[in-house]
Amino acid sequence: MALLGNILWFVLGGGFFAWLGWLLAGVLLAITVVGLPWAFAAFRIAGFAAFPFGRTLVDARDVDEMRVPGTGIANVLWFVFAGLWLWIAHVLAGIGYCLTIIGIPFGLAHFKLAQVCLAPLGKRSMPTA
């Protein structure tokens, strides 16, 4: 069922544009040396944005990975400069999709993406159990 949801999401639910947006953001951030930490996070999230069904985002510490020192400060900077606007866009898209019964799964996927927009560093995409 996750495969079908991911295919429909990628084609009809905005998955292609979400993937492309996060990928382009990662490329633009990678051009600057200062933006490299956010670029790596953007590339990870691009994969999640393309195929969110059957996956969840967890904190890196929950999967026994060490969190890089300064992640909290970097997430605050992200929130101020980009995260709030991305969060608003995904929440509005999610509300729009949830207005129709058929679009509710896509709306929920946008809400998952909105959650990661607030603090993308230190997150990992994992298969749901």
Topology (elements, then pairings):
Layout: H1 2-12, H2 15-31, H3 36-50, E1 55-59, H4 71-98, H5 104-118, E2 123-127
Antiparallel strand pairs: 1-2
Can you give me a brief rundown of this structure?
The protein has 129 residues and is mostly helical. Helix content is 67%, strand content 8%. The chain has a two-stranded antiparallel ribbon with strand order 1-2.
Structure commentary:
The protein has 129 residues and is mainly alpha-helical. It has one domain (2-127). 67% of the residues lie in helices and 8% in strands. The chain has helices spanning 2-12, 15-31, 36-50, 71-98, 104-118, and strands spanning 55-59, 123-127. It has a two-stranded antiparallel ribbon. Helix 2 (15-31) packs antiparallel against helix 3 (36-50) and helix 4 (71-98) packs antiparallel against helix 5. The radius of gyration is 14 Å and the shape is globular. The two termini are 14 Å apart.
List its salient traits:
single chain; 129 residues; mainly alpha; two-stranded antiparallel ribbon
Order of helices and strands: HHHEHHE
The general outline is: globular
| Count of beta strands | 2
Task: Please state the average pLDDT score.
Answer: 87
Beta-strand residue fraction: 5-15%
